[in-house]
């Protein structure tokens, strides 16, 4: 019997400070609320912050797995809403400079936990480093988080261009974060697609907007997720709407010919 496929979603954005980690955390919890078994990977390996955002203590991290001291399942910690978190280290330069073999080993290590997971959310680092590119390329879906700042649009375009040109990534889903109105979110998406449509052969899909909401700031100060502590806030409502859309995306069914998370399941399903 073929093992069930796992939805793997990379949350990225090029520029730092656009709220990628907040989107990753709240999307993960909102998906768990509708019954999905979710694992959240903190893929900012040298400057980890998911554990700090959620106020959870991680005794072991990805560094321990790479050193061979334990398995991936041993380092996972429980977060709000039943999600599980794969924590990374903070202030560890070596982890931000993994070689291709180490990346491959880490990605393949996830196969061991595949029977107990429906969705893997990858919170990437900022920028266009090899580490970011490796994790994004190994996912089946890419969410690009943008804000209404010229540098955010420019950096998002640069990342999309690189992923498309050098890594063959074709489809990108866009979330407009910290917008003042739904109209602002649409305008923001149009700014980005005006450039991508002109210069790139990519499929861009607008997933939705998360409003500017003081509840998010208050939740961060409390080291909590806004969907958890302010469930009726505008931002929490937006994250739940986003989760419903994500839950409707098609599951992967065939391998794409390069290293992917849970690729063994796709090979098995394709041959079933």
UniProtKB/TrEMBL annotation:
Coiled coil: none annotated. One of its GO terms (molecular function) is ATP binding. It comes from the Bacteria. SUPFAM superfamilies: P-loop containing nucleoside triphosphate hydrolases (SSF52540). Keywords: ATP-binding, Nucleotide-binding. Pfam families: ParA (PF10609). CDD domains: FlhG-like (cd02038). GO terms for biological process: negative regulation of cell division. The keyword Protein transport does not apply. The keyword Cytoplasm does not apply. One of its GO terms (cellular component) is cytoplasmic side of plasma membrane. This is Cobyrinic acid a,c-diamide synthase. It comes from Bacterioplanes sanyensis. The lineage of its organism: Bacteria, Pseudomonadati, Pseudomonadota, Gammaproteobacteria, Oceanospirillales.
